[in-house]
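We emphasize that the prediction below concerns an isolated chain of 252 residues; any contacts that depend on oligomerization or on bound cofactors are therefore not represented. The input was used exactly as deposited, without trimming of termini.
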Amino acid sequence: MPKQEELTGLEIEFDSGIIPPPYSHVYRISLDWSKGELSCKLDLHYTDRDEISEAEIFDEGFTLQDDFSYEGPLNKTWIKAIQNKLAETKWSGKSLEEGGIILKLTESGVQGKVKIPADQDDWMVFGQDIIQAIYETTKKEAPLTIHYRQVTSDKIQDCSITIRFSDREVIFVEGDEERNINWEYTVQLMKLIFTPDYNYEIAKENPGNKRGAYIECGDGLWHELGKGVVNIDPSNDVVSKIKEIFSDLLEE
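Result of the prediction step, given as a token string:
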């Protein structure tokens, strides 16, 4: 692995493999920080859609214009994140058979050979994080905001967490106060939040006022933890973990 100061760029190529349309897609992300700033180029293309009808595409929540291209700057905070990611990456000696991620590192302006990260799933998530950063940078999508309400016997506390992939910042707001919270800490919290089962049949447009905990995950619908949000695996009490983390954040 080259030293961080020798790395000046990275190309990420992804192929979804045997996943059927309308989900099947490929993308290439080219990143260059040789001049101190971070320049980025993304080409994302959905594949094999001529094999299905327009109705099937719409039924799965897609549109006919899901391909996306971008060439321009990305917040330079991503440079350190990319370098750290590469520094901890272990490489596979096997070739990909059914899609996945391949990388090409640029050292001192010279692009190297194809390298295959051993932890494919981890790099797929990282690639999606960069794409989300691009979407936010271009205003294609807004940052995700999670709203939370904690009701106890003596008070109601409302707060929110906004996750900005564009600059890798997380803003926690309670009342008139806001503060930054740790990025990696929030990533783990987000994994917890989207692990349980959400019952949309009993979701409401407003949070409850009775004792309990309520969460809204960016779509305008409120769910009560323990009733509208339940653990999938009884041996893994994720719902209680979510309550505990938000309780700690509200007490800080």
